[in-house]
Amino acid sequence: MFGQIVGVTEPATLKTLLSTAKKGSGVYSGRVTFAQLWKVSKWFRSTQIGRKPTGAKAKSQVTWKLYVTAKGLVTRIVSSYPGTAVGLDAGAVTTDTRFTGWGGRVSIKPPPPTMSRTCPTSTSAAT
Fold it and tell me: According to the UniProt record, where is the region Disordered (predicted)?
């Protein structure tokens, strides 16, 4: 039902988080509001289905912890926010996301022609 709302793969989001973070050994932590995430994160905006948070929801705080390797690669993010910010009666929504396989070989093959198609290009000009 719920997924990670903090898109740490977005440079603007990561910059926002780290700008006020507390730094520990291999971990950063902090808080960010829904309004701040809306402003910098395309990922967050997609999780809100295009509905800009207003009022109390905009002020809802996301607490987060970001874990990194000695080389600065993100390995984990844990975020938590009040359930009331997403229409629940109470409680909190906590999401723990892990990133693994950094530096591993990846092979990406195109799908067979029967599983893909070419999108037509638009020939109409905006007037």
Answer: 103-127
